[in-house]
């Protein structure tokens, strides 16, 4: 017969395991934005929820940038001294044959304007009401390519194998989106525009960066125009001072 104290111990251990699982692995969902009336009420709820998440993600990017700049300012700009950042921002040997590690990293390790992130999140997730946003915390239309990595689109073309990425939390979706803009070759134009704004001492704002997103959507230039219209109509540039 099992000792009573041992049974209590097993029960406590099981409860602790369940608690740990919920803390570290349970999915964290955004609010149900369909509970808000479409229009100003839903938009306000959407902006209020995502703005601090975007700001927090930018703080990490800004911290990376400061540390990279510190290393580079000391003249210790060899690849070895920046190895962890080169890995994080996916800079390889072929890249390093074209430019120095510092030049490449300082172009990639940088903030994404709040106005741009809000506009893309609203556009890609239908203001947080899409199936992928509600089921998979995917607010930016990001794909993954390993079977079982996400949600299979109902309208996926025959022969295609991509899925829509499933994130543990909305914050994870924001972080992945920002790293995508900072690492993927398709968004070099965006990073070049951002670098130019920095060099000229301008605020890094979403409006000019939309011109570097023609490859984000099959709609091409029309997609960038749609984002600019959203930013302007909703006066999203008012959030951009929180980006830098």
From TrEMBL:
Keywords: Cell projection, Cilium, Flagellum, Membrane, Transmembrane, Transmembrane helix. The chain crosses the membrane at residues 6-26. Residues 86-224 form the Mannosyl-glycoprotein endo-beta-N-acetylglucosamidase-like domain. GO terms for molecular function: amidase activity. InterPro entries: Bax-like, MGlyc_endo_b_GlcNAc-like_dom. Pfam families: Glucosaminidase. It comes from the Bacteria. The keyword Plastid does not apply. Gene3D superfamilies: 1.10.530.10. This is Flagellar biosynthesis protein FlgJ. The lineage of its organism: Bacteria, Pseudomonadati, Pseudomonadota, Gammaproteobacteria, Alteromonadales.
């Amino acid at each position: 017969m099992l000792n009573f104290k041992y049974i209590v111990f097993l029960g406590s251990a099981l409860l602790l395991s369940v608690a740990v699982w919920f803390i570290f692995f349970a999915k964290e969902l955004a609010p149900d934005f369909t509970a808000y009336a479409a229009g100003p009420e839903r938009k306000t709820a959407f902006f209020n929820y995502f703005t601090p998440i975007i700001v927090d993600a930018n703080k990490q990017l800004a911290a990376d940038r400061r540390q990279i700049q510190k290393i580079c300012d000391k003249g210790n700009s060899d690849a070895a001294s920046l190895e962890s950042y080169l890995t994080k921002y996916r800079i390889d040997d072929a890249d390093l044959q074209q430019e120095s590690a510092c030049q490449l990293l300082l172009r990639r390790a940088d903030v994404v304007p709040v106005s741009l992130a809000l506009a893309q999140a609203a556009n890609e997730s239908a203001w947080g009401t899409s199936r992928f946003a509600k089921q998979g915390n995917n607010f930016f239309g990001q794909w993954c390519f390993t079977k079982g990595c996400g949600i299979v689109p109902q309208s996926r073309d025959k022969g295609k194998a991509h899925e829509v990425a499933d994130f543990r939390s909305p914050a994870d979706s924001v972080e992945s989106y920002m790293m995508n803009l900072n690492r993927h070759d398709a968004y070099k134009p965006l990073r070049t525009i951002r670098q130019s704004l920095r060099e000229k001492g301008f605020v890094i704002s979403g409006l000019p960066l939309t011109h570097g997103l023609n490859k984000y959507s099959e709609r091409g230039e029309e997609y960038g125009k749609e984002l600019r219209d959203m930013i302007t109509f909703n006066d999203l540039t008012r959030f951009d001072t929180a980006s830098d």
